[in-house]
């Protein structure tokens, strides 16, 4: 089942297209990471999904239903530009948010605050950036929503708080919840996301599992031989993007997909060593960004 489904979702501001024909699917019980550089359309997408702004065209379906105000109570949201009332304590702020949602039970919020080492008795104006972010996270999850939408959730969190937050995310999803979050911190997305979408210039250029993206990504293999071997010997091999002569006896190849044909070709020569640079999410992101730049 898809908790989120969009079809040809488009948002324009005058002549500026912030989001273009977005077809996004987020499955129940998964953590979905939305990646993209600044201005890619991540925040616009999240705001459309929670009905803060309305699309120029296209459709949004949540929990199998067209988007409507009635569904808002099933969603938790952390904005990227979180604004707090400085004179309210954390507990007061959570009660205020709960009243707007007709949810008075603060049990889950208090438990999460303790896990994140957040003092709910302090006024928001006294909190550091990291603790303000913790309070925003707590309010997003505090009413036990079915879907949580988070805009750069780890911003300002120290490593210990990040680790605890990521552990809580997994527990929340294992308990039946669904998470969609945006980030430009690639290591965070790789660590916690089940699937990833990459937005560039308002368009979704790829949507897949992290494992599948890495399996099909461009990787680099360096072959060292006992004698001089020309890089031209590897041109035309399926999957090889380019082959560079690093030295007389060393050839560096960039290859996508299976590497069997390349390795067999290298084995025809007196092969001494092979080293492989396995791609991470940063490599994949840069690859798609460069390809998009080439297309433009």
From TrEMBL:
Residue span, ABC transporter domain: 4-226
Protein name as it appears in the record: ABC transporter
Keyword ATP-binding: yes
Record has Transcription regulation as a keyword: no
Pfam families for the chain: ABC_tran (PF00005)
Keywords, in A-Z order: ATP-binding, Nucleotide-binding, Transport
Signal peptide: none
Superkingdom field: Bacteria
Cited SMART domains: AAA (SM00382)
Family: Belongs to the ABC transporter superfamily.
């Amino acid at each position: 089942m898809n908790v989120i489904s969009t079809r040809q979702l488009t948002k324009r501001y005058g002549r500026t297209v912030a989001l273009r024909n977005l077809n996004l699917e987020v499955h129940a019980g998964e953590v979905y990471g939305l990646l993209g550089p600044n201005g890619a359309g991540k925040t616009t997408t999240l705001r459309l999904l929670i009905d803060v702004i309305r699309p120029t065209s296209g459709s949004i379906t949540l929990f199998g239903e067209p988007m409507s105000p009635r569904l808002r109570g099933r969603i938790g949201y952390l904005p990227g530009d979180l604004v707090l009332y400085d004179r309210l304590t954390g507990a007061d702020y959570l009660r205020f948010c709960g009243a707007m949602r007709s949810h008075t039970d603060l049990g889950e919020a208090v438990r999460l605050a303790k896990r994140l080492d957040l003092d709910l008795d302090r006024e928001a104006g006294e909190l550091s950036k990291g603790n303000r972010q913790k309070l925003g996270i707590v309010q997003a999850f505090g009413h036990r929503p079915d879907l949580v939408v988070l805009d750069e959730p780890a911003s300002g969190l120290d490593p210990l708080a990040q680790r605890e937050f990521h552990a809580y995310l997994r527990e929340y999803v294992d308990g039946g919840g669904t998470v969609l979050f945006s980030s430009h911190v690639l290591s965070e997305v790789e660590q916690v996301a089940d699937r990833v979408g990459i937005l560039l210039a308002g368009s979704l250029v790829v949507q897949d599992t992290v494992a599948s993206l890495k399996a099909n990504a461009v990787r680099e293999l360096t072959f060292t031989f006992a004698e001089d071997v020309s890089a031209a010997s590897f041109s035309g091999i399926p999957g090889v993007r380019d082959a560079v002569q690093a030295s007389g006896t060393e050839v560096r190849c960039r290859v996508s997909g299976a590497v069997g044909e390349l390795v067999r070709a290298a084995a025809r020569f007196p092969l001494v060593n092979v080293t492989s640079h396995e791609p991470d999410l940063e490599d994949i992101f840069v690859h798609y960004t460069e390809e998009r730049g080439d297309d433009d």
